């Protein structure tokens, strides 16, 4: 698709000249920043041209407004006079280039090609950690939301269940942020959960957010406030209100990420924040085989085991589990399974199946064929359950009868009647 260029300009003759010179691009002109910004929701431009000589205000004022809306987009400023102080001021403010009117087409095209913004270059999904790998639609949406927040340099409200490491995503955001050369500061609100600690929190926050003249690399680029739910409601509201206002003595360029486990429904959503909800593993079953394979490769190396994969039946039962502990629970399960494996493949019997998981997975497997009668469903459940237990007992009926406290003869007859056999 052709690169998109917009101009903020009110002079009809200049608009026509730009349109003709930039015919190889998708070009659109707007009279004000407000009008231009309405189009950003659909697609960000690859370059913005601002006429300094606007009817209302001036080009530098418009540029400062644009910096807040689309800070990554390069801007070229156009001006009538050979005003060196203006050119210096524009460059210091962050304007990518400064051109004089009337425009020379060759000079304009050279400046445009030099300053086109490519948003794809700012965003590369990570190879690590493992749980952020995959190609399923849920993960694709997460990366799309992250990319939009990064392009807009938007503050983020980050939610995620237990067992999801939010800090992995925070580090990823910081490494791709506009101020990645600065420090990532992490504040855990669990450390300020008592009422007498609130004053200490505000002192610490003011020091981090202060717009003071420090060495650039020592300043805060990204601030992560984790566990917002750990403090009482009035404290939470004060924190959100602080970031709504962001007074002049606060460094406006710091990206702020607030982490919590559940969205706080009884409070106003903070202005200037985008919501990113990290997906639980139960919604990413299409990525589970890939996640399991990558984790097992790491775990085999960690434990010096020659394990190279999962049997079909083991993977089937992993897919049936809902993982209330999310990615950490999957890692823990596979860690135990790799240690228990006697051969190159992790079998069903190697999985640390607790009673709740066993019953839940068995029921799902028995009913996966669709609508069946209660009698048939109960028989399929019992058959599947005995098959799993036989696998765990290595086919030893005597051991299984002692474990279940069922006479061996009765158990043998029931297993034969059901047609149960140890699952591979």
From TrEMBL:
Q: Can you give the residue ranges of the Response regulatory domain? A: 4-116
SUPFAM superfamilies given in the database record: CheY-like, P-loop containing nucleoside triphosphate hydrolases
Question: Superkingdom of the source?
Answer: Bacteria
Which one of the record's GO molecular function terms can you name? ATP binding
Instruction: Enumerate the UniProt keywords alphabetically.
Output: ATP-binding, Nucleotide-binding, Phosphoprotein
Q: Which residues carry this modification: 4-aspartylphosphate?
A: 51
Question: InterPro entries, per this entry?
Answer: AAA_lid_NorR (IPR058031), CheY-like_superfamily (IPR011006), P-loop_NTPase (IPR027417), Sig_transdc_resp-reg_receiver (IPR001789), Sigma_54_int (IPR002078)
| Residue span, Sigma-54 factor interaction domain | 132-339
Checking Pfam families in the record gives:
AAA_lid_14, Response_reg, Sigma54_activat
Instruction: Supply one GO BP term.
Output: phosphorelay signal transduction system
Write the protein's name: Response regulatory domain-containing protein
Organism of origin is candidate division WOR-1 bacterium RIFOXYB2_FULL_48_7
